[in-house]
Amino acid sequence: MLMTAKIESFVMHCGEMGSRWGFNRTVGQMYGLLIIHEQALSAMQISEALNISRGNVSMGIKELQSWRLVQVHHKPKDRKEYYSPAGTIWEMATRVFEERRKREVDPTLSLLRDNLLDEPANEQELFAQEKMHEIHDLLETITHWAGELQSMSPDKLNTLMKLGAGVSKVIDMKDKFIKKG
């Protein structure tokens, strides 16, 4: 399978972004390739398109499945498995965020909670715990806010995102109104 220059550029960029999302470059390339293909692809097609081994494709598919980002398809009278993105782009973004929360934020919150339960032994630990408490509260707030965002429909979320800085202006107006009242 040959890729056009535009498709190859996108796929390679997804590889670079993959490392920022929490998986390796090859897995990112595989996902990018799957996203932009209308039809599900076999492991052999992925291998040929990206010039990587079938074993590498197999490991990458397992990684994408652990993130719940791909689904497996079977075609009648064909023993091969075919892969496609699991859901919409919005659902993909939600899953990546949710998995990153599980892998990064949740363990940090657990560590912070454990450290905050202990009594500080000295002033240095007291100061450290105050900062840990600030980090804990920030992560809790972000996690709660993200959970609320994830429960919104894509249309509502898209509308909220388009509001952008307008939301800040409304809050500023509310604050001015309260000060005058």
TrEMBL record:
Pfam families: MarR_2. Keywords: DNA-binding, Transcription, Transcription regulation. Residues 29-80 form the HTH marR-type domain. CDD domains: HTH_ARSR. InterPro entries: ArsR-like_HTH (IPR011991), HTH-GbsR_regulator (IPR052362), HTH_MarR-typ (IPR000835), MJ1563 (IPR026282), WH-like_DNA-bd_sf (IPR036388), WH_DNA-bd_sf (IPR036390). One of its GO terms (molecular function) is DNA-binding transcription factor activity. Belongs to the GbsR family. This is HTH-type transcriptional regulator.
